[in-house]
Each structure stands twice: as C-alpha cells, then as structure tokens.
Amino acid sequence: MSISPFVLGIDGGGTKTVAWLAPRTEGEILGRGHAGPGNPRAAGFDLALANIDAAIAAAFADANLPRTEAAAACFGLAGAGWATEQQQIAAWASSRGIARRVQVTGDAEPILAAASPDNVGVVLICGTGSLAWGRNAAGETARCGGWGYLLGDEGSGYAIALAGLRAAVRAADGRGPRTDLLPAFLRQLNAGSPDELVARVYGSEMTRERLAGLASVVFDYRSTDAAAGQIIAAAARDLAELVATVVRQLELPPTAYTLALAGGVLLHQLNYQEQVFCELVLRFDNVWTRPDRWIDVKEPVRGAVALARSLCA
Question: What is the pTM of this model?
C-alpha cells in the first residue's frame, strides 16, 4: 500500500479550527481550511469533530485535490490536554480514515514546535483562558494553569474582564473606590445605568469569549485609572508565575530556553507582554534576561504540520 505524500496539521480553538495540508517532507503549504470551534470541551465533542472534519475537507478543496487519507495528522486542540479526550479524538480520526498515523495534543505542543526547532522551551498562552506548558531536553513535560474559567485561567482575558467588572460594580455600590471602568463598561455594553449591567452580563448572548473580549476596556484605562492599572499588574504577575513554575519544574536554565507566546491577549497587547517580562525578571532575581527566542506564534497550525511530519520520520 503506497504512503500518501501529504500530512495534515490541525489547530482547533474556542472560536475557529484551522487545517493545513502540506507535503510529507519540507515544502509549501498546499491547502488551508477553516471552520468553527474545534475545542471539544467548549463546543462539545460532536460539534468540534464536525468542524475539524469540515476544516480538513476545506484544506483539500483549497489545494484542488480529492480528499484522501494523509500519511500523518497532528491535532492540536484546546480542551484536549488530557488523555481521555486525546484517545477519543484519535479513535474518531482513525475511524474516519483521516491519516495513517495520528497524534492528538493540547494546543500548547504545536505552539512550541512552531517556535523551537528542538521542541524545548515554554509556551505561554493567554487569550480567553491561560496556560503555561513546557518540555526540557530530556523530553519531560510540565504544565501550570489551564484549569478553565471556574478554577483558574489567571491572567487571561476572561479573568481581567471579570476583575474589571467587579471593580466597576463595587464602585457603583460605594464600597469600592471610584473608577473610570464603571462608565466605560456602561458605554461598551450599551447600559443606561449600573443596574442594567446584570442583564447585559448574565444574558444568554454573553458567551465566555465575548466576556473575555471586555478585557480591552481594562487595557484601555490601565495608564489612567488606578483600578485598571492594578488589575493588569496583578494579571501580569499571575502569568509570570505560570511560566516560572514550569521553568522550575523542568529545571530549565533561566536564560537559555525558548519562550513561545500565543493567544489573542498576549499577541495584541504588547505592553502586557512587557509587563509579564518584567515580572519574570523579578522572579529570577534579575538573572532572567529576554532571550532571542522570545517568539510570538501567530499560526500554531504551522507547529502541528511540523509534528505531523515528524510522525513520518
């Protein structure tokens, strides 16, 4: 039986799924496909798998190729960081004939593969949620955070937005200091009074992702409002602690590892990146300096393709 000349890399998150079709060895991407959310925890397994399948079909269509079984596929999916989810998705992929060899990971491993040729270092993800994950040269891995919005996600867009809204309603009550966040949230949510915030925030249309998007209000006032500045400072400390914990667990040298950054909050709020960096310097007693390998990863699917190719080696 001949081996397919193609591999697939899939990146699935809470809002979209991206699939790339590529040659089995080095070469340009042949086709790109997009679909809805591919996070099985957030979207549900049935919808997430349907979207993943649709993105793969779109990648073959974009390449003007008939859909066939690939030599290998790597699925890097938010919400699939644990063995039970990975086994379920791998079984589905095999049953669908997507690829002869299948690897299912959480969303962090492809990000590191995209940033680090030797696949060693730490990933810091900060979007709707937050997570730090790493691998050392011995192949040992560690993670910190990623517990979801109820148990964790410190430093994330969701956590920042929620802290800002809480500061606003405390100000409305008179039990907290005045803050410009209150009128700012009222404008952003088209609320005529603080009482209307309840209907806006608890309404069925207020998804976790949309609420996390309200973090932009806090960022807008970070330099002019004391409450906003304190919230962002605390969030930066939380993210730095995630990274520092993984570095300690893996015994990585503090000045010689790749730090891969991903997630909409970190990639779009560059001042926030700087604040996290400053907190890392403090945690490593000013020994930790910005490495050349402080890398923004805007296309994690590129790392999924690299991991799929490694399955063929």
Answer: 0.86
